Amino acid sequence: MTKFKKFKPNTAGIKSIMKLPAVGAELGRIARRIAASAGSGGGIYKTDQETGSQRIRSAVMGNYDFPHSGGKEGSRRDLLRGLDGADD
């Protein structure tokens, strides 16, 4: 029987990759595609990106036309549609 060694990730390497400008550019591109796809449902979505001490993060934020898009369920539906449409 083969014995497996416990996996130990190279955390320093992972942290350095997560702060690369190319990673930030790709995260931003994906967030913009999600926002554009979610916005096709009638809401207004915005993106934000920030470089922290550990990583770059991108976010798609809220439906800024909330009352006209079906409330919480409409916003949730649009964001889920955005996730589906962002993988092109």
Structure overview:
The chain is α+β, with helices and mostly antiparallel strands and 88 residues long. It is built from three helices and two strands, in the order H-H-E-E-H. The chain has helices at 11-17, 21-39, 71-85, and strands at 46-51, 56-61. A two-stranded antiparallel ribbon has the order 1-2. A hairpin with a 4-residue loop joins strand 1 and strand 2. The longest helix has 19 residues, at 21-39. The radius of gyration is 18 Å and the shape is elongated. The model has no long low-confidence stretch (mean pLDDT 84).
Q: Please count the helical segments.
A: 3
Q: Characterize the overall form.
A: elongated
Distance between the termini: 43 Å
Structural class: alpha+beta
Task: Summarize the biggest pleated sheet.
Answer: 2 strands, antiparallel
What proportion of the residues is helical, as a percent range? Answer: 40-55%
Alpha-carbon Rg, integer: 18 Å
Strand content: 5-15%
Low-confidence parts, pLDDT < 50 over ≥5 residues?
none
